Amino acid sequence: EAFARQMAANPLKPAEYDTSPLAVPPRGLPLMPASEIDGASTVSENMESDKVGSGRPLTGYNAQNESLDRVRVDASGQVLTTNQGVAVADNQNSLRASLRGPTLLEDFILREKITHFDHERIPERVVHARGSAAHGFFECYQDLSDLTRASIFSEPGKRTPVFVRFSTVAGERGSADTVRDVRGFAVKFYTDAGNWDLVGNNIPVFFIQDAMKFPDLVHALKPEPHHAMPQASSAHDTFWDFVSLMPESTHMLMWIMSDRAIPRSYRMMQGFGVHTFRLVNAQQESVFCKFHWSPLAGTHSLMWDEAVKIAGADPDYHRRDLWESIEAGIYPEYELSLQIFTEEQAQQWSFDILDPTKLVPEELVPLRPVGRMVLNRNPDNFFAETEQVAFCTAHIVPGIDFTNDPLLQGRIHSYVDTQLTRLGGPNFHEIPINAPVSGVYNNQRDGMHRQAIPRGRVSYEPNSLAGGCPFQAGGAGFTSYPEHLAMADKLRGKPERFADHFTQARLFWQSQSQIEQHHIVSAYRFELSRVQTQAVRERVVSLLANVSMDLAQGVANGLGIRVPRAQQVVKPLEIAPEVSESPALSLFARPGEDSVRGRRVALLVTDGVEAASLHSVLDMLAEEGAAPRVVGARLGVVRADDGSVIHVETTVEAMPSPLWDAVVVPGGEGIQLVLSSYGQMVEFVKDQYRHCKPILVLSDDPVLLEAAGIPVDMPADEPDPALIRLRAERSQEDSVTALAVSVASFREALARH
Ligand code: HDE
């Protein structure tokens, strides 16, 4: 039953789990048939693979999957072989000179197996080591050829395959998902004109203005070199020492200390290209562009206490959420919007659009939605796909170009360079997950791990022996935007407007709701309490004094210090910001769709629970695509009040409170007393309350709530929208109505996060 419930949202699921192995597996089902897409392009929706070994169905069309089929391996029904394809007779025993004698050097089967194992690891990414990824597609809403000749924007309905990797920055490959950190949001578009990588973050600005400072930033952030602590955390002396001496990081720090840095899910965070890019059309006209991804599920975050507890209870929390959502057919979806502006506009503004510590407020340049991205397929193999994927900012396509943002310019170099070590040579573009679907034809040759077999004797251009092929594409190929550059002195330095470090930090602070401001103060207090050097703490507060005295005071209070004099600004500037408040910067600006899809709800049970009311909540949740689970003190079964048997799916120990989005406390004679006799049940409910999660109590009896210290009698004029208690009614009819009202209120609270 539980299985059926979980799978209800995805009709392809049972086949994937081989519960009906004899059924012909459905394959290549598009999310939306081409015929239903307005003005659908010629991209064939029903292209399917005949090489998908065990009949694993394809969920949604993705052309990249076809090229990956070439290398997919399925061992069903096959004998075990060596890497040379020789069948192995015995995989248990090495070859020995007599049963108790030494192992023989000639045992090539053992040696091959061990040697390969010895070399299984590759270096992890120097930053963004911890990540999770998924396949999907991007679908363009409209023809944007007036702005860009990028082929993915050429016609409405056109779909381009994507592979997206989300990540944390500081932690090592095995670190926890819910640490306070910026999240990477890297998208590889396999366009029909080559690969385009939009390697972004979930925060629209960055710590530093120049690539020159990146190694310093990362060295300060990573575990301290003498004792390699702390893991995946910025709460230590070297990080705060560095950033307190780099006033340009103030704006980014505001974001990092906000709830943006502890997202509820990869499905519930925005993505940003960060830098200003250029769009270039076929007439070589160019506009500036900022890229924004907005999640359909809305932007939602965890509470700090919750994030800390999740890190222990399930370090894979975000990875699991992404994986399970896709498996259940709740496909993460994001809308791509552009902020378009001209050189002339940008020149008027109080900030420099080449400065990556600045954003362009949405109130100044509104977002223009241009397409949507749906992630509808999990990778087959973590290493082959998620680990080996190589995103590079240098991967752009005709129609998109760089700007002179000095951080972006440095990145153009770094990403290709880093793969040479990480993936072991210059042929990483041939690793299947990195290979473009549009074909690669050039005269580059050889190198480590070469896969392609170039034919013929010509590996130079121009040539006549191969008929001149491959030949230059001319205007059809990539041409850099011919930006006019005035001759000036070669120098190391920054434009003047880069010197304003506080105006936008203040904008961010002022645009937050009260509760978000409160969380920012708490985060600074936490991080700086971990810092051991008093002078560093004070220096950070002296920076904050340039942003807001309220903020500086709040942080100083937590540190038991007075607010020091505001840190002197290097170059005082008269700044008249275009907007002084930007509601779009609050997490509340994007509540997302009104839906409870994928929300995890714990239904607590013990012997004697009232079956009828529990079932009505369960039915609602299952019907709406949420993930309700029966949670008990131990596995096995409990007997409900009507004599029916309820199977306990998991326990409060195995899946403690922080892992759930909401809880349902059951009704039943004397049940509350029984539940409150379990310490873990009391803690469970207490944490649900502490983390602001909806609590539905199917009983008028407040014993469990009281045991958890939850205020049970809220003033009638100020009800708690997330604490829903079912009142006892006299008549049967009134009870039914009361239950329906409570279940509806619970649904609403759950959908609002
Ligand atoms: Fe990165 N960054 N970065 N970065 N970055 C890497 O590339 C780098 C920056 C971002 O899922 C590395 O393949 C420099 C900004 C993401 O595989 C490396 C500078 C933004 C990912 C690198 C920056 C990012 C990376 C490490 C300053 C947001 C993960 C492994 C000049 C716009 C991609 C790798 C994935 C990864 C360098 C700053 C986003 C070393 C030098 C700003 C999402 O090349």
From TrEMBL:
Alphabetical UniProt keywords: Heme, Hydrogen peroxide, Iron, Metal-binding, Oxidoreductase, Peroxidase
EC top class, as a word: oxidoreductase
SMART domains: Catalase
Domain of life: Bacteria
SUPFAM superfamilies for this protein: Class I glutamine amidotransferase-like (SSF52317), Heme-dependent catalase-like (SSF56634)
A Pfam family assignment: Catalase
Cited InterPro entries: Catalase (IPR018028), Catalase_AS (IPR024708), Catalase_clade2 (IPR024712), Catalase_clade2_helical (IPR043156), Catalase_core (IPR011614), Catalase_immune_responsive (IPR010582), Catalase_large_C (IPR041399), Catalase_sf (IPR020835)
Molecular function terms from GO: catalase activity
Coiled coil: none
Cofactor(s) the record lists: heme
Domain Catalase core span(s) in chain numbering: 81-469
Catalytic activity, EC: 1.11.1.6
Gene3D superfamilies named in the record: 1.20.1370.20, 3.40.50.880, Catalase core domain
Purpose: Decomposes hydrogen peroxide into water and oxygen; serves to protect cells from the toxic effects of hydrogen peroxide.
Protein name: catalase
Organism: Uliginosibacterium paludis
Lineage of the species this protein comes from: Bacteria, Pseudomonadati, Pseudomonadota, Betaproteobacteria, Rhodocyclales
